[in-house]
Amino acid sequence: MRAGYGDGSGAAEVQVTNPSGGILGGDELGMEVSLAPGSSATVLTQAANKAYGGPEARQDAAFEVGEGAALEYMPHHLIPYASSNYRQETRIRLAKGAILLTWDAGRVARGERFAYARLSSRTRIMRDGLPEVVDGFDLPAGGEPFGGYSYLAGLYVLAPLDLAPLADELHHALLPGAPRVLASASAPSSGLCAVRVLARDATALYRALNVCRALSRARLGLAPPVREVW
Q1: Where are the domains of the chain?
Q2: Which GO terms describe its cellular component (predicted)?
Protein backbone atom coordinates (compact mmCIF):
# COMPACT_ATOMS: atom_id res chain seq x y z
CA MET A 1 0.00 0.00 0.00
CA ARG A 2 1.46 3.36 -1.04
CA ALA A 3 0.28 6.86 -0.16
CA GLY A 4 -0.29 9.42 -2.89
CA TYR A 5 0.03 13.20 -2.57
CA GLY A 6 -2.23 14.50 -5.30
CA ASP A 7 -3.15 18.03 -4.20
CA GLY A 8 0.26 19.42 -3.28
CA SER A 9 -0.83 20.17 0.31
CA GLY A 10 1.25 17.38 1.83
CA ALA A 11 -1.88 15.41 2.84
CA ALA A 12 -1.56 11.69 2.11
CA GLU A 13 -4.22 9.76 0.20
CA VAL A 14 -4.31 6.02 0.90
CA GLN A 15 -6.52 3.52 -0.94
CA VAL A 16 -7.37 0.28 0.87
CA THR A 17 -7.91 -2.78 -1.34
CA ASN A 18 -9.37 -6.18 -0.53
CA PRO A 19 -7.63 -8.55 -2.99
CA SER A 20 -10.26 -11.28 -2.50
CA GLY A 21 -12.98 -9.21 -4.17
CA GLY A 22 -15.39 -9.46 -1.25
CA ILE A 23 -16.08 -10.67 2.29
CA LEU A 24 -16.94 -14.34 2.61
CA GLY A 25 -18.90 -15.96 5.42
CA GLY A 26 -16.66 -16.43 8.46
CA ASP A 27 -14.09 -13.82 7.41
CA GLU A 28 -12.61 -11.58 10.11
CA LEU A 29 -10.95 -8.44 8.76
CA GLY A 30 -9.21 -5.68 10.68
CA MET A 31 -7.52 -2.35 9.98
CA GLU A 32 -5.61 0.00 12.27
CA VAL A 33 -4.58 3.53 11.24
CA SER A 34 -2.70 6.10 13.31
CA LEU A 35 -2.13 9.76 12.38
CA ALA A 36 0.76 11.57 14.03
CA PRO A 37 0.16 15.04 15.49
CA GLY A 38 -0.17 17.67 12.77
CA SER A 39 -0.49 15.16 9.91
CA SER A 40 -3.31 14.85 7.35
CA ALA A 41 -4.63 11.82 5.47
CA THR A 42 -7.55 10.66 3.35
CA VAL A 43 -8.31 6.94 3.56
CA LEU A 44 -10.43 5.52 0.73
CA THR A 45 -11.50 2.07 -0.45
CA GLN A 46 -11.16 0.84 -4.02
CA ALA A 47 -14.80 -0.10 -4.54
CA ALA A 48 -17.98 -1.17 -2.79
CA ASN A 49 -17.50 -3.82 -0.11
CA LYS A 50 -19.43 -6.99 -0.98
CA ALA A 51 -20.58 -9.31 1.82
CA TYR A 52 -21.51 -12.84 0.67
CA GLY A 53 -23.69 -15.49 2.31
CA GLY A 54 -22.52 -17.83 5.06
CA PRO A 55 -21.58 -17.63 8.75
CA GLU A 56 -21.14 -14.24 10.38
CA ALA A 57 -18.33 -12.15 8.91
CA ARG A 58 -16.74 -9.22 10.75
CA GLN A 59 -14.78 -6.16 9.83
CA ASP A 60 -13.24 -3.87 12.46
CA ALA A 61 -11.44 -0.58 11.82
CA ALA A 62 -9.63 1.47 14.46
CA PHE A 63 -8.19 4.97 14.03
CA GLU A 64 -6.06 7.16 16.30
CA VAL A 65 -5.88 10.83 15.28
CA GLY A 66 -3.24 12.96 17.03
CA GLU A 67 -3.38 16.59 18.13
CA GLY A 68 -3.84 18.96 15.20
CA ALA A 69 -4.16 16.06 12.72
CA ALA A 70 -6.93 15.79 10.11
CA LEU A 71 -8.45 12.49 8.93
CA GLU A 72 -10.90 11.77 6.14
CA TYR A 73 -12.21 8.19 6.10
CA MET A 74 -14.44 7.70 3.07
CA PRO A 75 -15.21 4.00 2.51
CA HIS A 76 -17.40 2.97 -0.40
CA HIS A 77 -20.79 1.56 0.49
CA LEU A 78 -21.41 -1.99 1.63
CA ILE A 79 -23.38 -4.45 -0.55
CA PRO A 80 -24.89 -7.26 1.58
CA TYR A 81 -25.89 -10.13 -0.71
CA ALA A 82 -28.72 -12.57 0.01
CA SER A 83 -28.15 -14.73 3.13
CA SER A 84 -25.13 -12.66 4.22
CA ASN A 85 -24.54 -12.16 7.94
CA TYR A 86 -22.26 -9.17 8.38
CA ARG A 87 -21.11 -7.06 11.32
CA GLN A 88 -18.75 -4.11 11.26
CA GLU A 89 -17.44 -1.67 13.85
CA THR A 90 -15.48 1.53 13.33
CA ARG A 91 -13.73 3.08 16.34
CA ILE A 92 -12.09 6.50 16.08
CA ARG A 93 -10.18 8.21 18.88
CA LEU A 94 -9.47 11.91 18.38
CA ALA A 95 -7.14 14.20 20.26
CA LYS A 96 -8.77 17.41 21.51
CA GLY A 97 -7.59 19.49 18.54
CA ALA A 98 -8.03 16.88 15.78
CA ILE A 99 -10.33 17.13 12.74
CA LEU A 100 -12.43 14.27 11.34
CA LEU A 101 -14.64 13.85 8.26
CA THR A 102 -16.06 10.36 7.79
CA TRP A 103 -19.07 8.50 6.47
CA ASP A 104 -20.59 5.02 6.64
CA ALA A 105 -22.82 3.94 3.75
CA GLY A 106 -24.61 0.80 2.60
CA ARG A 107 -26.96 -0.61 0.02
CA VAL A 108 -29.57 -2.38 2.09
CA ALA A 109 -31.76 -3.57 -0.77
CA ARG A 110 -31.98 -3.97 -4.52
CA GLY A 111 -33.59 -6.80 -6.47
CA GLU A 112 -33.20 -9.10 -3.44
CA ARG A 113 -34.74 -6.50 -1.11
CA PHE A 114 -33.57 -7.01 2.48
CA ALA A 115 -32.66 -10.66 1.82
CA TYR A 116 -29.52 -10.66 3.99
CA ALA A 117 -29.70 -12.71 7.18
CA ARG A 118 -28.48 -9.86 9.40
CA LEU A 119 -26.69 -6.55 8.92
CA SER A 120 -25.06 -4.66 11.78
CA SER A 121 -22.86 -1.57 11.87
CA ARG A 122 -21.49 0.51 14.76
CA THR A 123 -19.54 3.75 14.72
CA ARG A 124 -17.92 5.02 17.92
CA ILE A 125 -16.03 8.31 17.96
CA MET A 126 -14.22 9.57 21.06
CA ARG A 127 -12.64 13.00 21.54
CA ASP A 128 -10.12 13.53 24.31
CA GLY A 129 -11.38 10.35 25.98
CA LEU A 130 -15.08 11.32 25.91
CA PRO A 131 -17.77 9.89 23.58
CA GLU A 132 -18.94 12.19 20.78
CA VAL A 133 -20.69 9.68 18.49
CA VAL A 134 -22.15 6.27 19.29
CA ASP A 135 -24.27 5.33 16.30
CA GLY A 136 -25.28 2.43 14.08
CA PHE A 137 -27.97 -0.06 13.16
CA ASP A 138 -28.80 -3.74 13.55
CA LEU A 139 -31.17 -4.94 10.82
CA PRO A 140 -32.79 -8.35 10.50
CA ALA A 141 -33.95 -9.60 7.11
CA GLY A 142 -37.24 -8.65 5.56
CA GLY A 143 -39.62 -5.75 5.84
CA GLU A 144 -39.32 -2.33 4.25
CA PRO A 145 -37.83 -0.17 7.03
CA PHE A 146 -36.81 2.81 4.88
CA GLY A 147 -39.97 3.60 2.93
CA GLY A 148 -38.70 2.32 -0.41
CA TYR A 149 -35.20 3.82 -0.23
CA SER A 150 -32.39 1.35 -0.95
CA TYR A 151 -29.25 3.15 0.30
CA LEU A 152 -28.47 4.73 3.65
CA ALA A 153 -25.53 6.69 5.02
CA GLY A 154 -24.36 8.61 8.04
CA LEU A 155 -21.73 11.35 7.77
CA TYR A 156 -19.91 12.93 10.71
CA VAL A 157 -17.73 16.03 10.91
CA LEU A 158 -15.82 16.80 14.10
CA ALA A 159 -13.54 19.78 14.69
CA PRO A 160 -12.56 22.14 17.52
CA LEU A 161 -14.92 24.89 16.30
CA ASP A 162 -18.62 25.70 16.10
CA LEU A 163 -20.11 23.51 13.34
CA ALA A 164 -23.71 24.74 13.60
CA PRO A 165 -23.25 26.99 10.51
CA LEU A 166 -21.96 23.98 8.58
CA ALA A 167 -25.00 21.91 9.58
CA ASP A 168 -27.31 24.65 8.27
CA GLU A 169 -25.32 24.89 5.03
CA LEU A 170 -25.39 21.13 4.45
CA HIS A 171 -29.09 20.83 5.30
CA HIS A 172 -30.05 23.42 2.68
CA ALA A 173 -27.62 21.99 0.11
CA LEU A 174 -29.23 18.55 0.42
CA LEU A 175 -32.86 19.68 0.03
CA PRO A 176 -32.83 19.84 -3.81
CA GLY A 177 -31.98 16.11 -3.96
CA ALA A 178 -35.54 15.07 -3.11
CA PRO A 179 -37.24 12.74 -3.92
CA ARG A 180 -34.21 10.63 -4.93
CA VAL A 181 -32.53 11.65 -1.66
CA LEU A 182 -34.06 12.22 1.76
CA ALA A 183 -31.46 13.86 4.01
CA SER A 184 -30.94 16.21 6.93
CA ALA A 185 -28.02 17.71 8.87
CA SER A 186 -27.77 18.91 12.45
CA ALA A 187 -25.20 19.95 15.07
CA PRO A 188 -25.91 17.94 18.25
CA SER A 189 -22.98 19.73 19.93
CA SER A 190 -20.73 22.65 19.05
CA GLY A 191 -17.91 20.60 17.53
CA LEU A 192 -20.04 17.92 15.83
CA CYS A 193 -22.08 17.95 12.62
CA ALA A 194 -24.09 14.83 11.75
CA VAL A 195 -25.84 14.05 8.45
CA ARG A 196 -28.38 11.32 7.64
CA VAL A 197 -29.01 10.24 4.05
CA LEU A 198 -31.48 7.87 2.42
CA ALA A 199 -31.14 7.47 -1.36
CA ARG A 200 -32.95 5.67 -4.17
CA ASP A 201 -29.74 4.75 -6.02
CA ALA A 202 -25.95 4.89 -5.75
CA THR A 203 -25.60 7.93 -8.01
CA ALA A 204 -27.93 9.98 -5.80
CA LEU A 205 -26.17 8.73 -2.67
CA TYR A 206 -22.68 9.74 -3.78
CA ARG A 207 -23.85 13.03 -5.22
CA ALA A 208 -25.17 13.93 -1.75
CA LEU A 209 -22.06 12.67 0.06
CA ASN A 210 -19.67 14.48 -2.28
CA VAL A 211 -21.58 17.74 -1.82
CA CYS A 212 -21.28 17.33 1.95
CA ARG A 213 -17.60 16.51 1.68
CA ALA A 214 -16.74 19.54 -0.47
CA LEU A 215 -18.68 21.98 1.72
CA SER A 216 -17.23 20.48 4.91
CA ARG A 217 -13.65 20.71 3.67
CA ALA A 218 -14.18 24.36 2.73
CA ARG A 219 -15.65 25.14 6.17
CA LEU A 220 -12.72 23.38 7.87
CA GLY A 221 -10.15 25.31 5.83
CA LEU A 222 -8.96 22.24 3.92
CA ALA A 223 -8.06 22.21 0.23
CA PRO A 224 -10.75 21.04 -2.22
CA PRO A 225 -10.77 17.25 -2.70
CA VAL A 226 -8.48 15.91 -5.43
CA ARG A 227 -11.29 13.69 -6.70
CA GLU A 228 -14.83 12.79 -5.80
CA VAL A 229 -15.79 9.35 -4.49
CA TRP A 230 -18.13 7.35 -6.75
Answers
A1: 12-219
A2: cytoplasm
